Amino acid sequence: MNQQQIEQLQAEQALAAAKETIRNKLALLPDQSGCYLMKNGEGVIIYVGKAKVLKNRVRSYFNGSHNGKTQRLVSEIRDFEFIVTSSNMEALILECNLIKQYHPRYNVLLKDDKTFPYIKITNEKHPKLEVTRRIIKDKGKYFGPYPNAYAAQQTKKLLDRLYPLRKCKTLPDKVCLYYHLGQCIAPCEFDVEQSEYDRMIQEISRFLNGGQDVVKIELQRKMEEAAEKLEFERAKELRDQLIAIDAVMEKQKITMSDALDRDIFGFAVDKGWMCVQILYMRQGKLIERHGTTFPYYGEEYDDFMTFVTQYYSDNPALPKQILLPLPPELEQAKEELLEEEAQAEEASSRADDVIASLHSWLKVKVLMPQRGRKSEVVTMAIDNAKVMLDEKFRLIERDEERSVKATESLAGWLGLPEVRRIEAFDNSNIQGTNPVSAMVVFTDGKPDRKEYRKYKVKTVVGPDDYETMREVIRRRYERVLKEEIKPPDLIVVDGGKGQISAALDVLENELGLFIPVCGLVKDAKHKTAQLMTGDPAEIVPLPRDSQEFYLLQRIQDEVHRFAITFHREQRAKSMVESRLDSIPGIGEKRRKLLLKHFGSIKKIKEASVEDFRPLSIGDKLASQIIAALGEESP
Question: Long-range contacts: 540-546, Cβ < 8 Å, 24+?
């Protein structure tokens, strides 16, 4: 085979792999609006589009017939990404920003320097209203952007009628027609008090910031009056003004008029994994997103904040502003309490306390917005994190079909006749507290969840991973021998030479079992890096992009998730038990009785003295319980 044939074969293999990737990702597209970014073989973005329903639009590129241009585009696509938005209007603005950022070769309509229009109140002695596409630092007030330019113009006309600011670029020598129509206070001929301008600017600002309901009610009343008087042309004009107001005031959050650089964070958690999404807003425009998924160990919000601090340790180029989601307890307060202003201020104050250390460390403005556009764009980041995390798990499920062949190839790499059943172990503890271990089982490359097992570590004190591994291996395979269970074809442990040696020592020297053991070593980013096996353990040169390596990575991810989930359950249970045990008069029996009756610490704390009587707990002890739990509240 000559060099040309080899290159052609490699190209065909790369194309087949790309088609398979696209086919899998198409199955995961959400039923939501957003933007999609098509990439070529070099990872270059060649097309940006928007869609009301991402699933339908993106799939249409790979189904049916197309015109010449679209055929050329599709022939170059090797991968794609997407960003979810909360409305089609947001998708339109985001599409514009992305095209200006990446200049994709297949986009032509929005490559120019046009931007969406803004409504501006000029900063002059005699201010006027303008519709402009440029934001400059001239102390003018800008409102927008508005995706519908016609609606922006119509709203300006409406405001011109309601508020008689000057219309002329330069003041004339005498009053014009606008004065006679009642649409200008004629500063060219009459002195106008600054207080009058201030009043109109304040009312226009309130209108453009969302306070248009009063004006709409008045227009609705006038329209109905005109219709009753059979003045249908006037009624139609008023109706069109109402429609224009609704169109121009449609809320969107993809662009902000202050032109600040912002990083916007959102996160989602599921099955022991966290996904963090960062939306990058530059010059007030959302231009890019970055998402990463990883297993988390402690409380979700604490680990999220740890991620944020590590991110800026590695990326010292700071934006002007960082937007973060509220902690879960404050998010609940936002949903339940923000109807009252005092409670809203209290929730905001608590959020400020949470971010104080991060704020002082970074020396930039850090916000946890609770309402308005900033809050909405944080919600958008959270929604994208949820979609990405869901995509990860669904993609894993689809790839399980390909894992059967991977187990056959893995047996060859390890020199084994077959590897049908794999049992994998992982330990979990935080500084030695509540140590647990977990075992997952994969049969023919697929998880066999009914065979999963959890272990509370009994004999090990402190964070000793080797001794923990010895205890759990001993307990598992003593039971295998006792109950005459068929042993696995391969045991996988989380770790390297030390963990492998500990497992083999128990299996061979204590139990007389000879089962192959391999270890999965992680890198600095806690990702599967190497496969080791044997005694002494040696590295197996498994290609990082092979299906066999991906199978082992999935096994390690799954057992890690299962162990963390179990550890979190035990830690939460331990915290509950310790809180009750610290109350005089509450022993193990009463603690179990209380939890069984009430269901949680929160419900016990909220109970009245009378609620304890069915448990034969007197009023005095009941009062002590309620008081003790109340003192622990933040």
Answer: 540/413, 540/414, 542/413, 546/406, 546/409
- The CA-atom distances, in angstroms, between 145 and each of 115, 261, 284, 289, 322 are 9, 17, 10, 21, 21
Q: What is the 3-state secondary structure (H, E, C) of 113-139?
A: CCCCCEEEECCCCCCCEEEECCCCCCC
Please tell me the predicted confidence (pLDDT) of residue 357. Answer: 61
Tokens of 160: 């011109």
- Does CATH number 3.30.420.340 belong to domain 419-571? yes
Stretches where the chain sits below pLDDT 70 are: 1, 64-69, 108-116, 144-148, 210-211, 247-255, 295-299, 313-317, 329-354, 356-361, 396-401, 430-434, 524-526, 545, 572-582, 630-634
Q: Beginning with the edge strand found earlier in the chain, give each strand of the sheet holding 79-84 in spatial order.
A: 45-51, 34-39, 79-84
pLDDT at 38: 92
Does residue 463 have a cis bond before it (omega within 30 degrees)?
no
CB distance 121 to 129 below 8 Å: yes
* Whether 427 contacts 437, CB under 8 Å: yes
First to last CA, the chain: 73
Alpha-carbon distance of 170 to 336, in angstroms, equals 53
User: Tokens representing 232?
Assistant: 């249908």
> Which strand (E) or helix (H) includes residue 352?
helix 341-362
> Can you list the positions of beta strands (E) in 347-443?
365-367, 421-430, 433-443
Q: Where are the domains of the chain?
A: 17-102, 118-248, 262-389, 419-571, 582-631
State the pLDDT at residue 634: 40
pLDDT at 256: 74
User: What's the rounded Cα separation, in Å, for the pair 604 and 629?
Assistant: 8
Cα–Cα distance measured from residue 304 to residue 199, given in angstroms and rounded to the nearest whole number: 46
User: How far is the C-alpha of 318 from the C-alpha of 97, rounded, in Å?
Assistant: 21
In this structure, which topology does domain 17-102 adopt according to CATH? GIY-YIG endonuclease (3.40.1440)
Is the fold of 17-102 the same as that of 262-389?
no
pLDDT digits over 42-72, tens only?
889 998 888 888 998 899 888 866 666 677 8
The helix/strand/coil state of 582 is coil
In this prediction, residue 512 carries a pLDDT of 92
Q: String of b and e for 165-194 (b: at least 16 CB within 10 Å)?
A: bbeeeeeeeeebebbeeebbbbbbeeebee
The pLDDT score that the predictor gives to residue 113 is 46
Closest Cα partner for 140 from 162, 118, 169? 118
Helices 341-362/300-314 angle, 10° precision: 40
Instruction: Determine the residue type at 192.
Output: V
What is the CATH number assigned to the segment(s) 262-389? 3.30.420
Say what the pLDDT of residue 441 is. 94
